[in-house]
Amino acid sequence: MLVGTDNRPLYATLAALPKIELHRHLEGTLRLATLVDIARQYQLPMPAYDVEGLRPYVQITAQSPHTIEHFLSKFDLLRRFYCSPEVIKRVAREAVEDAAADNIRYMEMRFTPKALAHLMGYPFTDVIHWVAEAVREAQQGRSIRVNLIASINRHESVTEAEHVLSAVLECRDPSVVAFDLAGQEEGLTNEPFYEVFSEAHKQGLNVTVHAGEWAGAKNVYDAIVHMQAARIGHGVRIVEDSVVAKLAREHNSIFEVCLTSNEQSGVIDRVNHHPLRDMRALGLRTTINTDDPAVSDITLTHELYVAMTALGLSLDEVKQQILDAAASAFLPPIERDSLIAELKASLYSTVK
Question: Which residues participate in catalysis according to the annotation?
Answer without folding.
Answer: 213
